[in-house]
Amino acid sequence: MTTVKHWYVYMAAAVTVAFLVGFFWDQTPIPPNQIPWNSNTSLEWNDFQGTPPQTTPYSAATGYYLGYKDLVWRQYFVDNVCTFVISSVDVDAYVDRTLSWVKDGSQSSELLSHEQGHADILHVKALVLGKALWALVGMPHQCPDNDPAKVQQEVEDMVNSIYNPIFDSHDRLQDEYDSDTDHGRNPDEQRRWNQRLSDIFMPPPPNPIIPL
């Protein structure tokens, strides 16, 4: 079993209304430094427990992780043909309190709201990743060889072919968010992103059909 991990910390200097929706609750104990992507919990300043870098020009940073876990597969034979199936794989995504920090005197509601936007984007991409990964579960595939090591590599390649582009898309979206909003210092662009994220979590109702 393999878990692919990429750590990223995004900086911000100052606005987003967040509505986190909880899905697919994990029953395993949650480490105290982690805020799961599906926790339905908004960020608070006491979640920012890291130490700010001395040379950074930014006022705060949200550290988070996006990956996958619990990758399990099994190999069997059907009419003497080697077959494998992925029996489980799950999203592993969370905000890391120990990698998140804020400078003293910078704990404004506007800055916290902007940082929440980074957590919301993580949530959105975790949902996308989960949908794509869960579609792999239970689908039979012919083994590249009877060698379990080669099957293991095939499984990992299959999962990573889905994971990697979604992670890259997530990375680009986080960059776009900070660039558009100037790390929260452009209020007009921040409001546009606020609405964009809000509409993802709470889509507006469709326009009613009004008879002529």
Description of the molecule:
With 212 residues, the protein is an alpha+beta fold. The chain has one domain (7-201). 35% of the residues lie in helices and 25% in strands. The protein is built from three helices and five strands, in the order E-E-E-E-H-E-H-H. Strands 1, 2, 3, 4 and 5 form a five-stranded antiparallel β-sheet that branches. The longest helix is centred in the last third of the chain and has 34 residues, at 148-181. The chain is elongated, with a radius of gyration of 20 Å. Residues 1-26 have low confidence and may be disordered.
Please summarize what this structure is.
This protein has 212 residues and is α+β, with helices and mostly antiparallel strands.
Number of distinct helices: 3
Largest sheet properties: 5 strands, antiparallel
End-to-end Cα distance, whole Å, is 61 Å
How many domains?
1
Strand content: 25-35%
**Which percent bin holds the helix content?**
25-40%
The poorly predicted ranges are: 1-26
Tell me the Rg in angstroms: 20 Å
The helix/strand class is: alpha+beta
How many beta-strand segments? 5
Q: SSE string, helix = H, strand = E? A: EEEEHEHH
Instruction: Compute the average pLDDT.
Output: 85
From the spread of the alpha carbons, the general shape counts as elongated
